[in-house]
Design goal:
Order of helices and strands: HHHEEEHHHEHEHH
Radius of gyration: 19 Å
Strand content: 5-15%
CATH topology: BirA Bifunctional Protein, domain 2
Number of domains: 1
Distance between the termini: 27 Å
Number of helices: 9
Largest sheet: 5 strands, antiparallel
Helix content: 40-55%
CATH superfamily: Protein of unknown function DUF1054
Amino acid sequence: MAATGHFTPGIFKFLVDLADNNNREWFADNKSRYESDVKEPILNFIADFDERIESISPHLVADTRSNGGSMFRIYRDTRFAKDKTPYKINAGMQFRHEAGKDAHAPGLYLHVEPGSAFGGGGIWRPDSKTLGKIRQFIIDNDDEWIETKTDAGVLERHTLEGDSLKRPPRGFDPDHPLIDDLKKKDHFAIGKYTEAEVISPDFIDQWTEDCMNVSPYIGFLTRAVGLPF
């Protein structure tokens, strides 16, 4: 257990204030708060989790780089968005597979937002080829899939979520007993955290335990796309 928590109430206070003042002038005036209350604690959390992540999978990566690493940028991409506010009002971390080139590869994700902190793992919005592999892998390993998605450890703190197609995917039997799973466009196990849990001294221990518990689910999806776990 860590002597002190990685996060303080300051991370939530900053994000609340940012939501109320989402402009470049305010951010520039408060950048030191961002550095001390958000960026540095996240990078420290990632560094400490790097010492634990191999026990979950030697193929998952905790990258402490401030750009291009496990920490998501605070800056929004507004090029094609109707919402032109420049900053995200949450903080995010991804611990993706070593073979993944973007956030859509299998892995873990932790989201810190006032009143809405959550984390878990899986694969989010894979391309059609990758999604086809997952669907076929579920069919070919149906017993293992059923055992995995109903595993008591996986479901202890997590719910299995993901958007679905309205109709069965082309090329798959619409009467298949697992058709609801085959219709999914993404697969993600999500567990929620209170702000008190996030700032507690043992949050990294809780997070590590939760990642261990959900690892069979992430492992199945990782093997489904042809990667080792």
